[in-house]
Amino acid sequence: GIQVEQSPPDLILQEGANSTLRCNFSDSVNNLQWFHQNPWGQLINLFYIPSGTKQNGRLSATTVATERYSLLYISSSQTTDSGVYFCAVLGGGADGLTFGKGTHLIIQP
Amino acid sequence: DGGITQSPKYLFRKEGQNVTLSCEQNLNHDAMYWYRQDPGQGLRLIYYSQIVNDFQKGDIAEGYSVSREKKESFPLTVTSAQKNPTAFYLCASSFQGFNYGYTFGSGTRLTVV
Question: A52-63 pLDDT, tens per residue?
Fold first, then answer.
């Protein structure tokens, strides 16, 4: 099946810093989503972005499908941005999203 | 408000017992999914259903069973055959097809005692 690798696995930043999270995938995809999991376990859908660029406030994402990677940008980090960020993809023939292992982000005040 | 509800939030199971986790959605989504998350890991697909009365095994279906008798409901039973059931279980739903985002419930944390 399709492989999803996220980097870095852990990231510790000061409040106000910017960050870039990366997601590499091993095959062409029909669907790519970024999620944020808060400390209580709730997964929030940030972006549906199989290709191109989207922005939502301080967050933006870019997927270059031909090169099989996606980037999530967080600007002016806040402590509430802490948590685990997951990239998930849907490849051809698959019927459910395949998740990476996530990037654990800690924003310190 | 539309959403997806999982219950209970916490569940304790004795060895040899079957337990059922509830998942209900009022988003009019066609497809529903069950995922398992272990500490420090990503999510792994257990079962999914694209339409009522039909469901398919995911990557780790052994020891689990599901039913889809109503569009809104997709309960998961963790059977005694599941040797390591302690985990965080997440239910999701989406419209059918490739071009839609998933909405997740808040999860059920299952512990074997």
Answer: 999 999 999 999
